């Protein structure tokens, strides 16, 4: 060991001059050695795999090409959010599938959140029987694979709902619910909007009043914080939300109407047709993930110490306000990170659509397109890329939200 | 002593019993079920719901038919009444538990392996049991392989010998030269032993041999159990390595681990199974043919390793900084500090998370039915649903499948909660 004689000199900082052996024996340099070895091994491994790939493809007379995306797909997709027919390209089929994935994922996320919050709060209820019932719900759904739930719900729906022809005749076996909703084993038919002349203005007014509600609430909050003046919240919001829309609806001469589905021939026409595959997948994902979210909500509420509730009570807040102003804002911080990962799980589990024949991107790109063209590597690469982009965007969006509600520490 | 007080009570008045509505069952019901109008409505709704559920399910369950050989006979036996055809379970239990093509005279083998799994896992799960029993746990993987796949027992013995040799070389070299040289020396010693052992086992094919069963003949719930146990046990060490890599100061190693973890966590398991099914074979040298089950094990292990790595990273991050610094100040090097100070604590914190991942993974093994492997769900959707005898039956079979999964998963999560209480050494 060299003695410290001259601070600032190379010997004092480095101890001794660099030797090659120090790459292994000196902890300061050893990490470079390790990283170098890891990098070399990684490059060797990857190049080994790639050379195998190239060799295998050559032997089979295959190549990597993306041209199949422009070729006509030749198969039909039963749920088409955008224009598509069997002459459209494989690329377009993949886009249709991607939109279908996003549709079911969005629907399931919203309903799973609702199920989860209700079940989570009720599980903490003082009501013995309700709390037990919710425990049974949570345990039953958390401990059984989601694939089994999807299949059970799909089969139960398609066996329990009557055929469309049961709605026919003088004394039909089945009746439409409220005269507007038809539950059949081909799917559920719900009424749709018909947009007449002037409907654009009507929707615009509805949107404006929705924004108006938020503006009013923001203004009321600002007034409260700055001047201590408390404006009523409930009924003005309701008035702003409903009155302009209703006035416009009649002033413009009822521009928007409802079209109910009707039985014509062998099937229902008109309205919106929700296929059983979509409904089963949506419902199964929502109720399965809802059980997980319920646990997160329960944990979040329990994480808030009782002292917070008691302190809020000592300040004279009413129970509703204690929940809204003290407990929930703090519980939300605990709930949101696991909630993000549940949303990600829903998106990824929506790929189980393939089990019930819902044409999401796994069904189109990873299913029929892959089997028809034999372009396995390209299709699966695209498929993974899609899910990766969706997952990363969801976590990015939710992280922004999470940062906005996060505890602001010094 | 004379007193001007005329009367003094000698004893206390017996407390009168509480009013009937403030005691016993009535009080409990008033407080728990009907404490307000919201609660009362909820209670009545729940009772109505339970009533509907029970009256709907009970006749179905009670009228169940247990001994018919197809659905038509079962419907005839029910004669129009509501009732379940449990005879499908009695008729097809072997397909649901062991798959279509596992030889029926060998059913005792996976069953024995299943029972032994609990026996041999017990010393790992319950630390109160004598520690010598851990030897049985260590022997279990080799025994189970021999039982389920068959062949000569020499394969398992040689595999075991390789591990033992590797371990002894590791400990002796580690004492002299440190962790890393010991680690690599151990791996090389094990590889050499396995290479030599290959000759031994191929020379002694008939030595205590069971009839061989090919991997593609595995199916049913057995396949779910095999995939679940193997993949969880393999992904645990891999996950630890990935988590340590992600926490490391070395940017390249950290980068590799981050990319791997984030990639795997960002894609659904189904796409990875597609990879196992159609793409993975392209990456092996031409001419090698890996079993589908092996390829699936590789992909599922990668999948769960990424999730376990994230859980363990959480445990590592939750450790107070002082633990790392204390280990450093004792003069422990990285391997020692990690093995003796950091990992025991980090793993303890991560146990609930790891169990969650394990349960999730076990449930996700049903996804292999999508790539046409006949696991429990695959057996139901394939041979049972498409057979002429039982086509159109679903509640009974899926209910059976759900029950099997529920028992295992609920059991595991109850164990994990118990273990959490046992390990809670902090002050409350």
Describe the structure concisely for a colleague.
The complex is a heterodimer of chains A (410) and B (428). Chain A is mostly helical and 410 residues long.
Architecture overview:
The complex is a heterodimer of chains A (410) and B (428). Chain A has 410 residues and is mainly α. Chain A contains 13 helices and seven strands. Chain B is an all-alpha fold. The longest helix of chain B has 31 residues, at 334-364. Chain B is globular. Classes of the chains: A mainly alpha (410), B mainly alpha (428). The interface between A and B is large, with 54 and 56 residues.
Label this structure with key terms.
heterodimer, A: 410 residues, three-stranded antiparallel sheet, two-stranded antiparallel sheet, 13 helices, 7 strands, globular, disordered N terminus, B: 428 residues, mainly alpha, two-stranded antiparallel ribbon, 16 helices, 2 strands
Mean pLDDT of chain B: 85
Largest interface: A-B, 54 and 56 residues
Uncertain spans of chain B, ≥5 residues at pLDDT below 50? Answer: none
Give the overall shape of chain B.
Answer: globular
Please give the count of helices of chain B: 16
Helix content of chain A: 55-70%
Q: What's the N-to-C terminus distance of chain B?
A: 57 Å
Mean pLDDT of chain A: 83
Alpha carbon gap, first and last residue of chain A: 44 Å
What integer value in Å does the Rg of chain A equal?
30 Å
Specify the biggest β-sheet of chain B. 2 strands, antiparallel
Walk across the major sheet of chain A and give the strand order.
1-2-7
């Amino acid at each position: 060991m060299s003695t410290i004689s001259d601070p600032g000199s190379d010997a004092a900082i480095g101890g001794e001059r660099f030797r090659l052996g120090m790459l292994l024996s000196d902890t300061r340099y050893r990490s470079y050695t390790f990283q170098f070895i890891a990098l070399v091994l990684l490059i060797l491994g990857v190049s080994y795999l790639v050379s195998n790939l190239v060799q295998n493809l050559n032997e089979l007379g295959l190549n990597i090409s993306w041209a199949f995306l422009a070729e006509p797909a030749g198969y039909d997709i039963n749920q088409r959010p955008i224009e598509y027919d069997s002459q459209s390209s494989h690329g377009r089929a993949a886009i249709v599938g991607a939109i279908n994935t996003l549709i079911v994922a969005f629907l399931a996320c919203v309903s799973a959140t609702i199920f989860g919050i209700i079940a989570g709060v009720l599980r903490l209820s003082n009501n013995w029987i309700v709390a037990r019932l919710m425990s049974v719900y949570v345990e039953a759904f958390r401990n059984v694979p989601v694939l089994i739930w999807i299949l059970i719900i799909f089969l139960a729906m398609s066996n329990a709902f009557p055929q469309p022809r049961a709605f026919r005749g003088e004394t039909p076996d089945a009746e439409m619910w409220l005269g507007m909703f038809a539950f059949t084993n081909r799917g559920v038919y719900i009424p749709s909007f018909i947009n007449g002349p002037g409907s654009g203005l009507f929707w615009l007014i509805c949107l404006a009043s929705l924004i108006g509600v938020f503006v009013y609430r923001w203004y009321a909050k600002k007034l409260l914080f700055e001047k201590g003046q408390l404006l009523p919240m409930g009924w003005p919001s309701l008035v702003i939300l409903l009155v302009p829309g209703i006035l416009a609806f009649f002033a413009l001469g009822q521009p928007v109407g409802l079209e109910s589905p009707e039985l014509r021939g062998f099937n229902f026409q008109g309205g919106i047709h929700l296929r059983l595959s979509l409904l089963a997948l949506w419902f199964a994902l929502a109720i399965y993930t809802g059980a997980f979210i319920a646990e997160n909500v329960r944990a979040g509420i329990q994480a808030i110490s009782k002292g917070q509730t008691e302190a809020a009570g000592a300040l004279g807040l009413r129970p509703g306000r204690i929940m809204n102003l003290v407990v929930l804002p703090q519980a939300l911080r605990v709930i949101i990170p696991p909630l993000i990962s549940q949303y990600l799980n829903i998106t990824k589990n929506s790929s189980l659509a393939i089990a019930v024949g819902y044409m999401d991107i796994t069904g189109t790109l990873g299913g029929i397109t892959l089997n028809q063209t034999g372009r396995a590597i390209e299709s699966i690469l695209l498929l993974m890329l899609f899910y990766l982009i969706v997952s990363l965007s969801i976590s990015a969006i939710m992280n922004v939200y999470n940062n906005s509600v996060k505890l602001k520490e010094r | 002593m004379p007193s001007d007080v005329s009367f003094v009570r000698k004893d206390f008045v017996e407390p009168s019993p509480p009013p009937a509505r403030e005691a016993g069952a009535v009080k409990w019901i008033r407080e728990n079920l009907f404490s307000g109008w919201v609660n009362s409505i909820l209670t009545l709704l729940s009772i109505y719901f339970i009533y509907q559920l029970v009256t709907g399910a009970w006749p179905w369950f009670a009228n169940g038919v247990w001994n018919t050989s197809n659905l038509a006979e079962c419907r005839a036996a029910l004669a129009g009444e509501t009732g379940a055809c449990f005879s499908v379970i009695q008729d097809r239990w072997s397909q649901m538990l062991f798959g279509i093509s596992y030889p029926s005279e060998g059913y005792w083998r996976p069953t024995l392996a299943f029972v032994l799994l609990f026996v041999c896992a017990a010393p790992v799960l319950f630390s109160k049991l004598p520690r010598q029993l851990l030897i049985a746990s260590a022997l279990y993987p080799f025994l189970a392989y021999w039982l389920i796949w068959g062949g000569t027992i020499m394969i398992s013995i040689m595999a075991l010998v390789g591990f033992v040799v590797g371990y002894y070389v590791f400990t002796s070299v580690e004492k002299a030269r440190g962790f890393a040289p010991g680690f690599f020396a151990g791996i090389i010693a094990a590889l050499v032993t396995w290479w030599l052992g290959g000759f031994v086992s191929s020379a002694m094919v008939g030595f205590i041999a069971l009839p061989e069963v090919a991997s593609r003949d595995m199916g049913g719930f057995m396949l779910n159990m095999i995939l679940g146990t193997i993949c969880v046990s393999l992904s645990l060490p891999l996950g630890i390595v990935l988590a340590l890599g992600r926490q490391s100061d070395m940017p390249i190693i950290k980068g590799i681990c981050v990319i791997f973890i984030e990639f795997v966590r960002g894609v659904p398991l189904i796409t990875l199974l597609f990879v196992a099914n159609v793409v993975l074979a392209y990456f092996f040298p031409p001419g090698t043919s890996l079993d589908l089950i092996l390829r699936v094990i590789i992909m599922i292990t990668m999948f769960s390793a990424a999730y376990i790595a994230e859980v363990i990273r959480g445990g590592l991050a939750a450790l107070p900084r002082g633990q790392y610094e204390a280990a450093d100040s004792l003069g422990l090097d990285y391997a020692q500090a990690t093995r003796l100070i950091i990992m025991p604590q980090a793993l303890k914190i991560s146990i609930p998370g790891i169990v969650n991942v394990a349960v999730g993974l076990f449930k996700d093994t049903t996804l292999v039915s999508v790539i046409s492997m006949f696991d429990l769900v695959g057996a139901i959707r394939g041979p049972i649903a498409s057979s002429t005898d039982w086509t159109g039956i679903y509640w009974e079979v899926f209910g059976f499948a759900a029950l099997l999964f529920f028992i295992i998963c609920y059991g595991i999560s109850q164990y994990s909660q118990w273990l959490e209480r046992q390990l809670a050494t902090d002050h409350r």
